[in-house]
């Protein structure tokens, strides 16, 4: 795999372009993540989806706590995709998920949103908010309906997915805070997933010399130190089909077919 990065305005967040030059095959070592937590937000319901996710309702688990001031909201339309989309946790004021007892090291942090109307009278165009995880701003004044409208994949209509890599220190709870952007706007979230990854899958191993380091666009070497957060932009399989979560090597990643994605570089 080759990893290419390009810094964006948010400073501490880099964009990741990931390429797999071959099929993932059964011969690839399956990674067994020390943390694997998939949260069905705004619900008490646990369920599984075919791609291999076990969703846990956020109201009946000791693995996390949610600060006061948010509430459970039902989606007024049904998503065409199976997932945590019947319910959301929603608020016009800040709310925080504190996730306990995670191990130290790099994690995928995945956010799942369904841009639709929520009971009672929460219109999608008023969902404008920022999301912070620990010291990182993952989304800034994110206008969910605007992103949903501009999405170019009709098969995933109004479902928005974001994936980040963050590194946790020993003994840290992970706080994920949702911050409505202005009076009259609200923040919501349908699903959150945290999955451990191997230490130096994307972050640079300090023990590897300069030639082993990932390359910045333009050809300069650029270590990805673990105080940085990363955002996935594309994860491309150079094989002739996409690779779904269930066929990944234990980390529930998806790989798109490269020729379906516009290449900005
Ligand atoms: C849902 O899963 C959580 C975490 O495994 C567990 O604590 C809880 O009892 C489960 N709830 C139900 C209704 O099975
Ligand atoms: C919500 O969070 C933001 C960013 O951390 C902060 O500036 C603001 O004061 C918070 N609002 C309230 C009411 O606590
Ligand atoms: C976190 O782990 C410690 C030690 O294993 C345990 O005592 C504590 O109850 C756990 N906390 C939660 C919220 O699960
Ligand atoms: C968010 O996007 C919607 C279009 O879907 C627009 O109507 C609304 O004004 C936008 N909100 C803000 C605060 O930009
Ligand atoms: C995490 O959030 C909880 C609840 O809002 C708060 O009490 C705690 O101080 C926060 N921890 C950090 C490190 O921000």
From TrEMBL:
Residue stretches making up the Malectin-like domain: 39-257
First and last residue of the signal peptide: 1-27
Localization per Swiss-Prot or TrEMBL: Membrane
Main location: membrane
Membrane topology classification: Single-pass type I membrane protein
Keywords: ATP-binding, Glycoprotein, Kinase, Membrane, Nucleotide-binding, Receptor, Serine/threonine-protein kinase, Signal, Transferase, Transmembrane, Transmembrane helix
Source organism superkingdom: Eukaryota
PANTHER family: OS03G0124300 PROTEIN-RELATED, PROTEIN KINASE DOMAIN-CONTAINING PROTEIN
Name of the protein this chain belongs to: Interleukin-1 receptor-associated kinase 4
Organism: Vigna unguiculata
